Amino acid sequence: MTDQSGRFAAQGDQPWYPQQQQQQGYPQQPQQAQQYGDPYGQQQPQYGQQGYPQQQYPQYGDPYGQQQMPQQPQYGQQGYPQQQQPMPQQPYQQQGVPQPQYGQQQPVQQQAQQPVQQRPQPPQQQVRQPAPPSGPGPDGIDWEAEAAALDAPAPAHEAEPEPEDWEDEAEQAPEDDSFFGGEQDNSREAERKRKEKGKKSGRRNRGACLVVALVLMGGVAGAGWWGYGFYQDHFGPPPDFAGAGSGSVNVEIKGGSTGTQMGLTLKNAGVVKSVEAFTAAFGKNPKAGTIQPGIYTMQHQMSGTDAVQRLVESNGGNVLIISEGRKAADIYATIDTKLKLAKGTTATVAKDQVASLGLPAYANGNPEGFLWPTRYSITEGMKPEELLKQMVANATQHYSELKLDEGAQKIGLKSGYEVIIEASILQAEGNNSADFGKMARAMSNRLNTNAGPPSGTWGRLELDTTLQYELGRTTFTAAEHDKDTPYNTYKRKGLPPTPIANPGDDAIKAVLNPTPGNWIYWIAMNPQETRFAGTWDEHLKNVQEWCTGQGKGFDQKAGQCK
């Protein structure tokens, strides 16, 4: 709208005072009232020149004017439509709802703010008016809905519903404030838009903070991981296994070896994880200097501390360690030394008291294979028979738990005793428990097939270790090789009559569960490596390589060193 000077001004920027505008009506205002005023036209209350209602207080009970007679729209003396002049001091003017204008006194204003609780009028006094049209008027505002919202009592502490689909609309809506400094729009719609805009801004801020926090956390974690690796590499303890390990492997400690050299030998054999872990434990153990040269049976993946302790205890102290694969004769000699007895004392006791050692009947009075390899405590004044009884008891208990008789039937052996015999040969032949599965399969293939050289094995093992056991030495002559004896597996089919050593758990389990394969031959290239072959020609190449490494010649026809 324009003022009298013709300039544009924001609606409601000039308050209206009835005392100053009493005789300035305009004749064209009735037409403007029908276009821009109250969209329902005939519902405006009539007032006098002083702005008081003409004794029609009940008419305010019905906001749609259904209790009054049809009247022509009335205007103030100024001639402007009443709704075009908001009163700043009235609280409802901020919602854009048209209010009646009064003079200096407005006694009826309080009545307009009361909820619709009027007593119903008698039917004969009511004159029904046509229902006003619903929806927004020409000015784009639904005055009926606004009036109903103002008249209805608002519930206390009613939470405004969260807007859902207004983001786009809120973003595209223009600013409510006038560019020329007009008053801020305090309508309900404008207030709602400002709140929604604040919520969206808060959500954007929270999302940005979350992204920044995640980036910072990732950077801190990465820096921490790098710092931990740097510390471990430069200042942390050396790599080490935990515990006493498992399995078994024979390791040779040469004379004059330092702690570092011992650690390197053990690391190459898979006993310790690093040389540094072993040398650190070696330096802390005051008895480490007593370790003597020789062949030691160690376990895979031992901690440095356990490896040093195992070597130390094998030399002395109050513990006796029996390694896997040792023969009964060697065990007897070790017991004599440990108990400080005369040489041969334990062997005599084993022979004389064999009936009281607790051997099963199928052992036929032979302790070989029943002296269980493990650690035994030594006490002051202990007798050799006490140790022998402990060893036999441990062996029979383990054999019972493994159910050897049931397992023998599945692999083509006659009894659990044959399982012990084959396991003892495997234990004597092998250096590394990791190879026991393949070796057990090769032995089974020899016993149950005709595989082998051009003439075939025909069920013969053809192994040196069985003949060496019988002779009691590692070398033998050609005549001894060709002689038919119970333990000469070059001449006899099947297994020898007794075990040739005292096997451990790993060897026994390998016999019961051999690794699938077609291997027939094997040769120990060194304490850590055993090579397997499925043909005679492949095996001859491996044997020739080993002989050359030992500085010996090679007999191609015999397939052995010269």
The number of helical runs is: 18
Radius of gyration: 54 Å
Query: Mean pLDDT across all residues, rounded?
Result: 74
Biggest β-sheet: strands ordered side by side in the sheet: 1-2
State the distance separating the first and last CA atoms.
125 Å
Structural class from helices and strands? Answer: mainly alpha
Helix content: 25-40%
Order of helices and strands: HHHHHEHHEHEHHEHHHHHHHEEHEE
Fraction in beta strands:
5-15%
Q: Residue ranges: pLDDT <50 for 5 or more in a row?
A: 1-120, 122-127, 163-181
Sketch the major β-sheet: 2 strands, antiparallel
- State the total count of DSSP E strands: 8
Shape: elongated
Give your account of this protein's structure.
With 562 residues, the protein is mainly α. It has 18 helices and 8 strands. Strands 1-2 form a two-stranded antiparallel sheet. Strand 5 and strand 6 form a beta hairpin. Residues 1-120, 122-127 and 163-181 have low confidence and may be disordered.
SSE map:
Layout: H1 29-36, H2 109-112, H3 143-151, H4 167-172, H5 188-234, E1 246-253, H6 259-268, H7 275-284, E2 294-300, H8 304-313, E3 319-321, H9 328-338, H10 345-352, E4 375-377, H11 384-402, H12 404-410, H13 416-429, H14 436-448, H15 464-471, H16 478-482, H17 505-512, E5 521-526, E6 529-533, H18 536-549, E7 554-555, E8 560-561
Antiparallel strand pairs: 1-2, 3-4, 5-6, 7-8
